[in-house]
Structures are given as structure tokens and as C-alpha cells.
Amino acid sequence: MPEERPSPTSGTGDPETAMRVLLTILIVLLVALQAKLWLGEGGYRDVQRLRERVAEQERENAALRERNEQLRAEVEDLREGLDAVEERARSELGMIREGEEFYLVVPSPPGEDQAQTSADERQP
Hints:
Elements: H1 15-39, H2 44-80, H3 82-93, H4 110-122
């Protein structure tokens, strides 16, 4: 008696159907992974937000570094001598040295200049 071979479709189902099921599972898995990549925690949007925050923080750090350098230079000037102290006292506090005379030149209002010029031209 010849041995009977099982047909390819017996027991395991149709191979075409099996491929469709496998393909469907792979597509669902791909969609799930893509959704997690784009929408999930640690996904693309989160990475973009973090990049923006890092760029903003770097700009802020650069501004603060520049300010620190200015303050460091000012502290060094104040440590080195009295010239910086004197300059600050003159500009910020309006102080003058003993024996100096202070003259404040006040600009005249805009309409007054023309009236004065016209009056000077009329006088012989």
C-alpha cells in the first residue's frame, strides 16, 4: 500500500490565507509602532519639544554668560583703581571734585530758538 501524503491544504489551512493573516498582523504591528513613534511618550513630538526647550535654554545661557562677563569686567575695574569709582560717582550720583565747577547746559525749547533768531535778525 502506498503511503498517503497529507495535502498541503490539509491541517494547516490554505497557505494564501495564512499569508494574509501574517501580513495583516505585520501591518497592525507596524501601525502600532508608528503610532507610538509619532504620538507616544518619548515620540517625535516630545523630541521636538525638547529640542525647542534646549535651544531656548542655550539662548538664555548665552545671554547670561555675556552678562556675567560684563559684571566680571566691572568688578575687575572696581578692584583695580579709583578711576572706575570716580567715573561711577560722577555719572550716577552727580558728584564733582572739590574745587571743580559744574555747568549744566539746558537746551532751549524748539519754538524758542526760532523766536530768538528772528528777534536777533531784526535788531540793527
